[in-house]
Amino acid sequence: MLGRLKNEHLDPVLERVGGPDGAKVNYGEIMNGWKKIKTDFDSKAVGAKDVMANIFFKYNQVKNDAIITTV
After folding, report:
1. Which residues make Cβ contacts (< 8 Å) with residue 41, sequence separation at least 6?
2. How many CB atoms lie within 10 A of CB 60?
3. How many CB atoms lie within 10 A of CB 19?
């Protein structure tokens, strides 16, 4: 689920960062993609809250690494 949400909301922004117009992408656009992932995950994920929180925490670490290596 998180991979699909990342592909949908964040990857298009990160692709623009790595493209010829990368300087035109602002930090707010990246954070908006991340917020959309979190909102969708919170509304659609099912399971125990502690398990969901743990999965989201681990994904957040991966996301931070992806943003740092892209920028």
Report:
1. 1, 2, 5, 52, 56
2. 14
3. 10
